């Protein structure tokens, strides 16, 4: 029996408890067909636990989730047939060639024999591995393995592809290549992509992102809308006397600033309008000034009160100017 909500993924009150740890605290969200939807959050936020429940690898403690119109608890097999998975830990067989790995997967999924060869070629070409099809996987680099995992995840033409931290541990060049393939994928295949990441720059590629922190969704929207919602620009100035500049900013403008990356840094609603006043009224010589629009870092800070890096390292202390920004 199938309930069709029209969404590729539909989640209501989804919850997962491990003993005393509430890893996912009753979350709600919808992913539209064809969307690239990202879960952005620090380590331990509950991203992998959520994706595991959606992929039927972990049983929810409460709530419901439909994937491709099927219930993840009551219709596990239907869900599994309709999804592709690329998880953090590689599950390829290093002793087999790239092509043999895919053939094995095709058999597991019962793909019609007559179609397998052509489909394998298609997905391997998509991730630029066709010329390495006869190479043993143990001889592949980390990036090649990840690309092969993506090809394998696509082999049975899933409706939803789940990618758990698809570029974690890869060098920047390989990360950008992987994103090239994901972007190609969204153009060529009729597919919805659900991914997790703790990289801000990757979240930018998503149509919409959900920021997750401590098992809760803090906000969901497009990266653009989220950045606009922060509503403040970042201003950085180099001065002859940082202490005096910070004091003057507080006294004359009511703005909290801190030294960040060697520059006096603060946030104001409209950087362009503020800068002329700054030169006229600060009373401390300014050597240079730069104004930047909010980034997803600022968004994360604004909604959670911490930076994603601080949340991960729990180092605290740093980035006081961002904390000031969060006081909206
Ligand atoms: N099998 C488990 N048993 C007990 N606690 C768990 C288990 N799996 C996850 N947790 C806990 O649930 C919370 C969420 O973990 P989860 O792996 O979902 O986070 P994450 O956002 O995916 O982080 P990462 O990026 O490090 O994978 C953490 O506190 C984690 O320690």
TrEMBL record:
Regions annotated as coiled coil: none
GO MF assignments: ATP binding; ATP hydrolysis activity
SUPFAM superfamilies: P-loop containing nucleoside triphosphate hydrolases (SSF52540)
Gene3D superfamilies according to UniProt: P-loop containing nucleotide triphosphate hydrolases
PROSITE patterns in UniProt: ABC_TRANSPORTER_1, ABC_TRANSPORTER_2
Pfam families referenced in this protein's UniProt entry, alphabetically: ABC_tran, DrrA1-3_C
Compartments where located: Cell membrane
NCBIfam families linked to this entry: drrA
UniProt similarity note: Belongs to the ABC transporter superfamily. Drug exporter-1 (DrugE1) (TC 3.A.1.105) family.
Protein name according to UniProt: ABC-2 type transport system ATP-binding protein
Organism: Thermocatellispora tengchongensis
């Amino acid at each position: 029996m199938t309930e069709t909500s029209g969404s590729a993924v539909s989640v209501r009150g989804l919850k997962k408890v491990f003993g005393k740890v509430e890893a996912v605290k009753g979350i709600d969200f919808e992913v539209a067909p064809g969307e690239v939807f990202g879960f952005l959050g620090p380590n331990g936020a509950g991203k992998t636990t959520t994706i595991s429940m959606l992929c039927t690898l972990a049983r929810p403690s409460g709530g419901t989730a439909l994937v491709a119109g099927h219930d993840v608890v009551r219709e596990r097999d239907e869900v599994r047939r309709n999804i592709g998975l690329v998880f953090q830990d590689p599950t390829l067989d290093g002793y087999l060639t790239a092509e043999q790995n895919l053939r094995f997967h095709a058999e597991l999924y019962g793909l019609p024999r007559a179609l397998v060869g052509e489909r394998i070629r298609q997905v391997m070409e998509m991730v630029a591995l066709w010329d390495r099809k006869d190479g043993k996987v143990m001889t592949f680099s980390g990036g090649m393995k990840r690309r092969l995992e993506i090809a394998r995840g696509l082999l049975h033409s899933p409706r939803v592809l789940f990618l758990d931290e698809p570029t974690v541990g890869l060098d920047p060049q390989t990360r950008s290549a992987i994103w090239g393939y994901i972007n190609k994928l969204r153009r060529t295949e009729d597919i919805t992509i659900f991914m997790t990441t703790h990289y801000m720059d990757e979240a930018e590629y998503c149509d919409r992102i959900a920021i997750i922190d401590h098992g809760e969704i803090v906000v969901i929207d497009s990266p653009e809308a989220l950045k606009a919602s922060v509503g403040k620009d970042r201003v950085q100035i180099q001065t002859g006397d940082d202490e005096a500049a910070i004091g003057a900013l507080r006294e004359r403008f009511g703005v909290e600033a801190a030294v960040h990356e060697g520059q006096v840094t603060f946030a104001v609603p409209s950087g362009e309008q503020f800068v002329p006043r700054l030169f006229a009224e600060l009373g401390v010589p300014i050597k240079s000034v730069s104004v930047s629009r909010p980034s997803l870092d600022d968004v994360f800070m604004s909604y959670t009160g911490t930076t994603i890096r601080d949340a991960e390292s729990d180092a605290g202390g740093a980035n006081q100017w961002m904390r000031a920004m969060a006081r909206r």
